[in-house]
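**Sequence, structure tokens**
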Amino acid sequence: MKAQYQSDRKARVRQLIQVGGLLHKSGLLEAFGIVPGDDLQDYENRDIAAALLGFLTMCFEKHSFEEDNLEQWRVKGERLLRGAS
């Protein structure tokens, strides 16, 4: 059971790191003034973390996850992953 927990935890950490990489590549971190070394759990960075979370949540609420939207986002994401804008 402990081995499964550790495996699940490693998978979760890997996924969170990958998502963080996507946020970085999107330009959102720069837009919100988040720089390497910022600890978003520190009280002094709470406003930045709250603004980013609010932005992401409002985007999520505003846009429906219909197949047309997902396809447009996928196409844009593919371009960004290749390094083009």
